[in-house]
Fold:
Amino acid sequence: MFSEEELQDISVLQRGDDYVEVVCGCTSRRHGDAGARLRIFNSGELKIACECYPGCPEDNLTPFAFEKHAGKETCRWKNNIWIFIDGYKVPLIKTALLKFYNMSPKHAKRSHKFVHRDEFIKCTKCDKRRRFYRRSKKECRIYHDALANANFKCSDIPFDKFSCDDAEERASRSACKGCLRSPTCGGCTSCVCFGCEVCCFSDCDCQTCIDFRKNTKA
Structure:
C-alpha cells in the first residue's frame, strides 16, 4: 500500500494485506489530546478506534466523528487529526496516508453530496450560542426539540455537559458549519434543508414537519 519512504518515521502499529494501522490523535483546547488508532484501507476507507481513556467504546469512528468525539468543534479533520512522525505531531493532510482516500470514487464525489449543516441556538440564560450537529436523524431531533424550547438553556443540551460558565465558541470556529463545499459557507443547496425524512418527524406538529408530511403524501 505504501512505500517504505512514505511510512518512514511514522508510528506504524500493524500492517495487513489491505490496511495499515498507525497511531493518531486530535487535540482540543477543552479536553487536550485524544489518542487513537487510525486504520487506512486500500479501498479509501478510514476507521479510527479511540483511546481517549482506557476502555473507550468508540472503536469504529469516521475521521469526522472522531474529531467531534475528541471535542474539536471545527470541520477540518484532515488538518486536526495528526499522526506521529519522528516524535512530532503532523497533520494527516501533510502526509501520504490519504492517497487512497483521495483517489476513492466514493470520496472524490463528496463535494456534490448533501449534509445538514450545524446550527446554533442561543441560551436564554447566558445569551451564549451553542452548536448543534445534524449529521444523523438523532442529532437532527436533538436540535429540533431544542429549537422548539422557548426557554432553552445550556444545561438542556443532552450530548455534552454544558453550563453557562463554559466559554462560547470563537467567531472563527462558529463560522464553520460543516458544509462539504466550503467550510465557511453561509448557506447553499449542499447544506441547507427545508424539510426531509432526516430532519422532519412524524410525531411533531411544527409547521415544517406538517408541510413535509403533506408534501410526501401529495
Summary: The two ends are 51 Å apart (CA to CA).
